[in-house]
Write a sequence for this structure.
C-alpha cells in the first residue's frame, strides 16, 4: 500500500465515522430506518434533509468501511492466522467490551438526575426495549446487555468485523475458487438483508470485495478509464433524491416498493462509493496535509465508540429545551451531532494525554 | 320520581287530583330518519355513545339524527341477519354479540370493522324446538347464554363459540328459568332461579347453595313459597329480592314476590305491582336507573316504582297524553344512556324520555279538558308558596308547591248589591293578578272594568268598578318601585293608583297588553298596533315611543304582548321577533329567525336569575343568552312539551323557577336544570360521504389516515356529539388543516363538504361547545391524504429530471465521441499520408534530384532512378488508393472488401502467372467492420498475397474468407517453397501483419515449412 492510499483510507475512515453521527442523529418518527422505510409524516425541509442524508447520501459509509477492513486484513495474509486473530481480539473484542461498559456507565450516570433520566427514558435506545433505570433492571439485565446487547448499539460493527476475521479463511477460499458464485450469494444477502446469528449479512459482500480487490492487486489509487464523474455523481445523488421523494410519497409498503427501493439503494450506494472514492483525491491530499485534521482524525475510533449513547440523550435535551423554537428539529439534527462530535474528540484527546497506555488498550492502538 | 314529568291536573275542587309520568318522544318509521321497523327489540349504547338498535329488520345504529343499517358483505364476514335482533350484548371492546331468535343464530359483530361471524353453540344437550335463549353479561366481561331448561353456556372468544359454563354446578335435574340469572355484584354471587328452587353460587367460597345445601343458613332457602318455577329474579340497590314465578300446573297468573334479605315479604313495596292491566301480562325483565328507580317491563307491563308514593306507577297512555306517552303491547328493553335519558324498545316504536338529574326539575301540566276548560291568564305566587292562577271565567285556581290542588276562597264572598247582578260572574273573568307589596292584598282585574281586591288576612274580597276605567276590561295591573299601582285597560286607558286615588295618565285608544315598571321608575306600556310607550312614572309624560315605522331603530311590529328588562339600559319588547331597546341610546336591535329565534311571533318573555331571557314563541320555548348572543331552543328532548300553548302569561317564582301558562297548560321549570357545566362528549364522525356514496365512518376512523385517490377529492363529513339531550344545543367548530387557518363555526346541518381538494395531506378537526361555552375535552380528528396523480409526484418529476440528465450526458457523450472519431480519423489520415506518402515522396524527391544530376553524365543511372521513381509513385498511388478506398463510406460492406481483395489478388497473381482460388462464404457478407479494421484486414491480406507473389514461387494461391465461431477467418495459402517460420527474421511485412491483427483484437498465424507452402491465417473477432 502506497502512502497516498494509506492516507486515503485514514481520511475516508474518519469521514465515514464523523458522518455516522448524522445518521444516528436523525429524529424522524420512524425509529429504525431501513433502505426501504417509508416516512409517515409530512415532507418538510427537516424531514426531507434527514431522510436524504441518513437513509440515502450517507449510506455509502458502512460498505466503504467494510471494503477497507477486508482489504487491510487481506494485506496481512503473510502473517500467521492465529497471531492475526489474537491481534484482532485486542483491537476489536476488547474495545467492544470496554466501550459497551462505558455506554452502560454513561446511561447509569444520566439515570441519576431527573432531567437526564427523562432524556434516557425518552431516547428509548435500549436494544431489548426495556428503558427502565438500571437500578430496576438489576445486575443480570445489565450483564446481559453488556455482553449481547450493549446500549452502545453501534458496537455491532466491531463485533461483526471480528467474526469476519475469524471466517477469513473461508472468504479467501471462496473468493479464490468460486468468486462469481460467492459474490452472487453475498450480493443477494446484502440486497435481501439476510443475516445469521452473529454474522451480519450487510458487511459480508463488501468485506469480501475488499479481500478480492487486494488479491487482484487492483490499482485503487488510479482512476479507471471507465469511470465517469458525471455518471457516478448523477446516479449517487439523483437516485437518492428520487428515493427520498418516494419515501414520502409512496403510501404503502408493498413488495414492488421494496424491490424499487432496494434497486435504488444498491445502485446509489455503489455509485456513492465510487463517486466518493475517486472524486476526492485533492481534498484528501489537502486535508491530510493539515495538522488539525490529522490530529482530529486520530480520534475516529473514540468518536465511533462514544457517540452512542451520548447522541440520543443530547438530542432529547435539545428537544426539551428547544421545543417551541422555530425549526428546532432541524437545529437539533445539525447541532446535536456536531456537539457530540466535538465532545468525543475532546474526551479522546484528554484520555490520550492523561492515560496513553489505557487509551491505546481501549482503542486497539488506534490514533497514535 | 325525579325528572321531567308530565302531570295531569284536574282543578275541579271536587275531583282535584294529579297524575304524573314521563314525557316520551316516539321515534318511528314515519319520522323518515331511517328506523327500519317499529318493532324495536334490543338496545345498547356503545362507548362512543351510538345507540345500537335491534329491530325486526335487523341491526341499526342511531347517532341521534338518523338510523344507519349496516351490511357486512365483505370477505371473511358472514351476512348480518335481516331478521329480528332480540338481544345485543357487548362481548368486548367494539364487539357485540347479537341474538337472532328466528334463525336461532348468535353472532359476533365488530362495530369498527363492520364484520359479523356466527357463533357456534357447543351445548351438551340437543336444543328443542320450544327452547328459548337469554344472554347475560356478568363480571369480567363474560357473556352467559341461558338456554331455558337446559344449561348455561359461556362465550369463548378464542373459539368464537358458546361452551358449557362450568363455574356453577346446578343440582342434577334442576332447570334454570329463562330470566332467572342474576349476578349480585355486591356480594360476588351468582343467583339462578330454577324449576326446583333457588341456586346461589358464592364465588368467594366457591360453594353452591340450595335449599338442600345451605351452610350459611340463608333465610331465603327456608321460604317454601318461592322455591318452585322461578322465572325472573332481581336484587335491587335497596337489597330487595324480587322473584317472579309461574304455577307448576294449571292456569293462573304470575306470582310476584318482594323480600328483604331475611326472607320477609315486603308487601308494602309491592303496592301497585299487580295493577289491573289491559289484558294478559307477563313481567319479564327488571331495570334499575342510575337514581335507583326500579322498572319492571314485559308483555303489557311497563311499571316503575315511585319512592315518593311508595308504589308502582303504571306508565300507560292516558287521554290527552297519547302523543307524550308510550304506546305498547310489549316492552322489549329499557336502557339509560350516558346523559341519563331513557330509551324504551317497544313493539310500536322506539321511545325516548329526557330523564333529568334534579328533583322535579321540569313539569308540564295539562289541565284535563274532559272535565273543564282552563284558560290561565295570569300567575301569582303567594308568600306561602301557593301558585294562584287567574282563570278566565273561573276566577282563581290554586296549586300547592307539591302540585296538589287546593280550593280558592277569593270569589267565595259575593259582590255588594250596589253592583250589577252579573258582577260576581263577570268579575271571575279574570285577566290579571297583582299583589300589592305594601298591604299584601291581591288586586285582580276582570272583564267590565271590575277590580276585585282580595285580602288574604281577612279572606275578604272587595269588589269595585272604578269609573275612570270606563267599564273596560282591566288587561294588566302592575306595581312600580314606589308602590304605585298601574292599570291598563282593553279600551286603551293607562290609569295610575296612588295614595288611594286613581288618575288617568293616558288614553292611548288601543288595547294595553302589559304595563312594565322598570328599575328607573319608567313605565313601559305594550299596546296593540300603537307600539311601545315609555312613560315617566311621576308625571306620566311620554318619554319614548317606539313603533314599526320602517325607519332606523323601529320595531318589527307595532303590536306586542310582553316586556322585560334585560339590563339597566336594555328593554326587551316582544313584538314579532325580539326587539332589544337601548333606552339610553334610543336604538333598537332585532332578533329574528335569522338569528336563530324559533319563530318571529314572540308571545312571552321572562328573565331568569342567571341573566338569561326565556322566550315563548309560536314555535316553542327558547333561551337567549345576552353574553354570547346565542339563542337555544328547548323542546321535547328537554322535557318541554307544552310550550307553544303556554302563550298567555309568565311568572318567575321565588325559588327562581319560571312558569309559562296558557290554555289548559302550564310549563314550570327550574332554569338551572338547563345549565350544564359538564363538557359534552367528544364529537364523533357519524358519516363520510365520498361524492354521493356513504362510507363507514367507523372503519375510516380506525385508519391512521384516510387515503383518497386524486380524483376522490370531493367529500362530506358528518359529525355530532353523541348527546341526545344536548345534541341540538351545541355549537360545532371545525378546521381542515391544510386549507383552513382558523376554526369555522358549523351551521346546524353538522356537516361540512369539500370539493376538488388539491392533492396533499389534511387533518380534519372538530370540537363543540355547549351553550354555556364548555368545550369537549378532546378534539376529534381524522387525517386525509389525497394522493396526487403519479405524474405530479415529486419522485416522478425527479425521475424525469434524472433521465433528462442522463440523456444530456448521453448526447454529450455521443458528440464528444463523434468529435474524437473525426479527430482520430484525421490523425490517422495524417499519419498514413505521412507514413505512406511522405517517405515515398521524399524518396522520389531524392531520386529525382539524383536523376537530375546524373541526367547528363550517367544515363543508365538516370534511367534506374527514373525507374525507381516510377515504382515509388506507383506504390504511392496504390497507397493513396488504399487510403481513399478505406475512408470511402460506400466501401463499408464486406462485399466491397472481398471484391477489392479479389481484384487485388487477381492483379498481383495474374502478373506472376499464379493461379488464384478465391472463396468467400455467404455469412461473411453480414459482418460489419469499422473503417480501421477494414483497412487493417485489407492490408494484412495484401501483405500476405504480395509475399506469396513475390517470394513463394508458388503456382497456386488460394484465398478463403469465412466465419468461424464469431470470428472472421482470412486464409491465404500457397503451394510455394515455404520457409522456416521459426528462423524467419520477421521483417517489416510479418511484423506489420501482427501489429494490424493486434489493432483488430485479432491474431495472425503463419504455418509454413520449407517445401510445403505457406498458410497465413488471420482471425478477427466480429459482431454479427
Amino acid at each position: 500500500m502506497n502512502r497516498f492510499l494509506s492516507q486515503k483510507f485514514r481520511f475516508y475512515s474518519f469521514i465515514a465515522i464523523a458522518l455516522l453521527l448524522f445518521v444516528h442523529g436523525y429524529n424522524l418518527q420512524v425509529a429504525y430506518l431501513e433502505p426501504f422505510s417509508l416516512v409517515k409524516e409530512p415532507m418538510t425541509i427537516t424531514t426531507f434533509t434527514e431522510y436524504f442524508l441518513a437513509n440515502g447520501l450517507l449510506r455509502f459509509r458502512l460498505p466503504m468501511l467494510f471494503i477497507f477492513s477486508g482489504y487491510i486484513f487481506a494485506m496481512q495474509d503473510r502473517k500467521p492466522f492465529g497471531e492475526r486473530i489474537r491481534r484482532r481480539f485486542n483491537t476489536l473484542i476488547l474495545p467492544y467490551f470496554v466501550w459497551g461498559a462505558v455506554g452502560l456507565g454513561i446511561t447509569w450516570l444520566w439515570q441519576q438526575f431527573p432531567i437526564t433520566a427523562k432524556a434516557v427514558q425518552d431516547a428509548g435506545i435500549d436494544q431489548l426495549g426495556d428503558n427502565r433505570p438500571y437500578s430496576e433492571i438489576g445486575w443480570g439485565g445489565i450483564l446481559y446487555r453488556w455482553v449481547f446487547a450493549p446500549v452502545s448499539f453501534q458496537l455491532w460493527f466491531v463485533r461483526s468485523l471480528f467474526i469476519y476475521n475469524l471466517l477469513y479463511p473461508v472468504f479467501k477460499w471462496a473468493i479464490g475458487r468460486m468468486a462469481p458464485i460467492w459474490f452472487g450469494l453475498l450480493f443477494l444477502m446484502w440486497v435481501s438483508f439476510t443475516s445469521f446469528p452473529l454474522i451480519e449479512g450487510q458487511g459480508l459482500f463488501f468485506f469480501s470485495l475488499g479481500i478480492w480487490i487486494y488479491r487482484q492487486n487492483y490499482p485503487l489509487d488510479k482512476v479507471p478509464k471507465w469511470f465517469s464523474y458525471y455518471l457516478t455523481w448523477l446516479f449517487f445523488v439523483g437516485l437518492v433524491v428520487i428515493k427520498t421523494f418516494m419515501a414520502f410519497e409512496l403510501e404503502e409498503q408493498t413488495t414492488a416498493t421494496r424491490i424499487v427501493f432496494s434497486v435504488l439503494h444498491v445502485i446509489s450506494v455503489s455509485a456513492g462509493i465510487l463517486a466518493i472514492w475517486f472524486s476526492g483525491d485533492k481534498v484528501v491530499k489537502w486535508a491530510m496535509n493539515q495538522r488539525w485534521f490529522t490530529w482530529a482524525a486520530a480520534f475516529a475510533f473514540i468518536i465511533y465508540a462514544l457517540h452512542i449513547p451520548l447522541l440520543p440523550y443530547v438530542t432529547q435535551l435539545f428537544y426539551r429545551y428547544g421545543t417551541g423554537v422555530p425549526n428546532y428539529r432541524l437545529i437539533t439534527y445539525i447541532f446535536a451531532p456536531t456537539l457530540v462530535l466535538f465532545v468525543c474528540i475532546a474526551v479522546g484527546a484528554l484520555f490520550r494525554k492523561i492515560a496513553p497506555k489505557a487509551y491505546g488498550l481501549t482503542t486497539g492502538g488506534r490514533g497514535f | 320520581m325525579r325528572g321531567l314529568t308530565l302531570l295531569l291536573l284536574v282543578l275541579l275542587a271536587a275531583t282535584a287530583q294529579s297524575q304524573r309520568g314521563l314525557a316520551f318522544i316516539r321515534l318511528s318509521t314515519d319520522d323518515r330518519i331511517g328506523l327500519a321497523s317499529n318493532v324495536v327489540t334490543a338496545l345498547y349504547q356503545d362507548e362512543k355513545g351510538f345507540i345500537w338498535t335491534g329491530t325486526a329488520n335487523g341491526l341499526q345504529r342511531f347517532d341521534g339524527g338518523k338510523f344507519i343499517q349496516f351490511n357486512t358483505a365483505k370477505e371473511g364476514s358472514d351476512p348480518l341477519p335481516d331478521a329480528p335482533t332480540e338481544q345485543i350484548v357487548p362481548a368486548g371492546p367494539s364487539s357485540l354479540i347479537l341474538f337472532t331468535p328466528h334463525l336461532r343464530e348468535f353472532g359476533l359483530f365488530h362495530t369498527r370493522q363492520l364484520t359479523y361471524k356466527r357463533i357456534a353453540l357447543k351445548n351438551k344437550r340437543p336444543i328443542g324446538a320450544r327452547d328459548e335463549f337469554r344472554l347475560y353479561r356478568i363480571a369480567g366481561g363474560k357473556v352467559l347464554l341461558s338456554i331455558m331448561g337446559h344449561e348455561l353456556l359461556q362465550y369463548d372468544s378464542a373459539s368464537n363459540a358458546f361452551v358449557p359454563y362450568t363455574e356453577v354446578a346446578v343440582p342434577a335435574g334442576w332447570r334454570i328459568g329463562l330470566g332467572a340469572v342474576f349476578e349480585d355484584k355486591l356480594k360476588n354471587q351468582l343467583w339462578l332461579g330454577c324449576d326446583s328452587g333457588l341456586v346461589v353460587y358464592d364465588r368467594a367460597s366457591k360453594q353452591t347453595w340450595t335449599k338442600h345445601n345451605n351452610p350459611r343458613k340463608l333465610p331465603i332457602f327456608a321460604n317454601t313459597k318461592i322455591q318452585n318455577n322461578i322465572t325472573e329474579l332481581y336484587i335491587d340497590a335497596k337489597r330487595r329480592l324480587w322473584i317472579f314465578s309461574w304455577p307448576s300446573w294449571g292456569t293462573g297468573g304470575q306470582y310476584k314476590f318482594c323480600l328483604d334479605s331475611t326472607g320477609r315479604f315486603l308487601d308494602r313495596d309491592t303496592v301497585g305491582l299487580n295493577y289491573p292491566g289491559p289484558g294478559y301480562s307477563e313481567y319479564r325483565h327488571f331495570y334499575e336507573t342510575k337514581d335507583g328507580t326500579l322498572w319492571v317491563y314485559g308483555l303489557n307491563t311497563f311499571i316503575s316504582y315511585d319512592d315518593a308514593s311508595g308504589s308502582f306507577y303504571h306508565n300507560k297512555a292516558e287521554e290527552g297524553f297519547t302523543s307524550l306517552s308510550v304506546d305498547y303491547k310489549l316492552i322489549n328493553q329499557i336502557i339509560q344512556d350516558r346523559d341519563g335519558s331513557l330509551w324504551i324498545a317497544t313493539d310500536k316504536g322506539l321511545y325516548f324520555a329526557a330523564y333529568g338529574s334534579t328533583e322535579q326539575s321540569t313539569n308540564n301540566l295539562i289541565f284535563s279538558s274532559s272535565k273543564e276548560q282552563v284558560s290561565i291568564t295570569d300567575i301569582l305566587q303567594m308568600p306561602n308558596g301557593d301558585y294562584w292562577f287567574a282563570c278566565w271565567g273561573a276566577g282563581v285556581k290554586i296549586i300547592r308547591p307539591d302540585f296538589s290542588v287546593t280550593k280558592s276562597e277569593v270569589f267565595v264572598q259575593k259582590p255588594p248589591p250596589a253592583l250589577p247582578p252579573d258582577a260576581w260572574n263577570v268579575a271571575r273573568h279574570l285577566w290579571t293578578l297583582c299583589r300589592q307589596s305594601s298591604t299584601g292584598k291581591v288586586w285582580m282585574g276582570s272583564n267590565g272594568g271590575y277590580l276585585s281586591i282580595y285580602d288574604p288576612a281577612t279572606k275578604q274580597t272587595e269588589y269595585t268598578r272604578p269609573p275612570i276605567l270606563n267599564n273596560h276590561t282591566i288587561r294588566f295591573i302592575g306595581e312600580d318601585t314606589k308602590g304605585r299601582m298601574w292599570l291598563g285597560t282593553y279600551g286603551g286607558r293607562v290609569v295610575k293608583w296612588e295614595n288611594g286615588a286613581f288618575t288617568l295618565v293616558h288614553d292611548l285608544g288601543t288595547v294595553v297588553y302589559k304595563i312594565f315598571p322598570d328599575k328607573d321608575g319608567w313605565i313601559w306600556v305594550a299596546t296593540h298596533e300603537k307600539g311601545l310607550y315609555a312613560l315617566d312614572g311621576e308625571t306620566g309624560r311620554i318619554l319614548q315611543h317606539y313603533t314599526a315605522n320602517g325607519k332606523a331603530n323601529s320595531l318589527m311590529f307595532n303590536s306586542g304582548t310582553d316586556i322585560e328588562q334585560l339590563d339597566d339600559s336594555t328593554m326587551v319588547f316582544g313584538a314579532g321577533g325580539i326587539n332589544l331597546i337601548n333606552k339610553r341610546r334610543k336604538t333598537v336591535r332585532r332578533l329574528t329567525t335569522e338569528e336563530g329565534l324559533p319563530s318571529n311571533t314572540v308571545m312571552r318573555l321572562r328573565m331568569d336569575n342567571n341573566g338569561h331571557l326565556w322566550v315563548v314563541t309560536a314555535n316553542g320555548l327558547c333561551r337567549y343568552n345576552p353574553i354570547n348572543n346565542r339563542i337555544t331552543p328547548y323542546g321535547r328532548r328537554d322535557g318541554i312539551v307544552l310550550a307553544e300553548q303556554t302563550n298567555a302569561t309568565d311568572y318567575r317564582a321565588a325559588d327562581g323557577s319560571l312558569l309559562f301558562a296558557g290554555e289548559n297548560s302550564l310549563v314550570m321549570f327550574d332554569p338551572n336544570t338547563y345549565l350544564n357545566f359538564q363538557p359534552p362528549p367528544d364529537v364523533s364522525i357519524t358519516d363520510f360521504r365520498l361524492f354521493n356514496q356513504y362510507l363507514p365512518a367507523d372503519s375510516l376512523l380506525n385508519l391512521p389516515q384516510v387515503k383518497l385517490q386524486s380524483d376522490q377529492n370531493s367529500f362530506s363529513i358528518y359529525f355530532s356529539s353523541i348527546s341526545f339531550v344536548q345534541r341540538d344545543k351545541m355549537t360545532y367548530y371545525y378546521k381542515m388543516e391544510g386549507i383552513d387557518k382558523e376554526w369555522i363555526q358549523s351551521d346546524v346541518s353538522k356537516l361540512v363538504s369539500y370539493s376538488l381538494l388539491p392533492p396533499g395531506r389534511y387533518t380534519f378537526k372538530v370540537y363543540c361547545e355547549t351553550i354555556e361555552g364548555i368545550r369537549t375535552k378532546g378534539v376529534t380528528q381524522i387525517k386525509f391524504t389525497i394522493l396526487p396523480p403519479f405524474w405530479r409526484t415529486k419522485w416522478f418529476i425527479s425521475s424525469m429530471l434524472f433521465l433528462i440528465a442522463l440523456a444530456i450526458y448521453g448526447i454529450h457523450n455521443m458528440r464528444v465521441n463523434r468529435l474524437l472519431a473525426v479527430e482520430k480519423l484525421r490523425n490517422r489520415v495524417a499519419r498514413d499520408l505521412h507514413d505512406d506518402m511522405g517517405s515515398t515522396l521524399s524518396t522520389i524527391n531524392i531520386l529525382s534530384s539524383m536523376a537530375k544530376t546524373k541526367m547528363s553524365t550517367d544515363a543508365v543511372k538516370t534511367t534506374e532512378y527514373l525507374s525507381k521513381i516510377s515504382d515509388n509513385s506507383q506504390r504511392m498511388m496504390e497507397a493513396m488508393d488504399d487510403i481513399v478506398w478505406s475512408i470511402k463510406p460506400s466501401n463499408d460492406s464486406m462485399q466491397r472488401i472481398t471484391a477489392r481483395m479479389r481484384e487485388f489478388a487477381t492483379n498481383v497473381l495474374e502478373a506472376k502467372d499464379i493461379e488464384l482460388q478465391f472463396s468467400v462464404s455467404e455469412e461473411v457478407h453480414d459482418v460489419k467492420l469499422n473503417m480501421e479494421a477494414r483497412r487493417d484486414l485489407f492490408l494484412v491480406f495484401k501483405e500476405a498475397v504480395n509475399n506469396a507473389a513475390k517470394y513463394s514461387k508458388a503456382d497456386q494461391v488460394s484465398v478463403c474468407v469465412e466465419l468461424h465461431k464469431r470470428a472472421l477467418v482470412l486464409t491465404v495459402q500457397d503451394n510455394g517453397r515455404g520457409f522456416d517460420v521459426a528462423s524467419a527474421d520477421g521483417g517489416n511485412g510479418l511484423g506489420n501483419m501482427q501489429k494490424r491483427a493486434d489493432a483488430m483484437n485479432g491474431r495472425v498465424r503463419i504455418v509454413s515449412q520449407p517445401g510445403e507452402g505457406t498458410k497465413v491465417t488471420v482471425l478477427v473477432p466480429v459482431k454479427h
Summary: Chain B has a mean pLDDT of 87. Helices of chain B lie at 423-427, 697-702, 794-854, 859-887, 894-911, 931-951, 987-999.
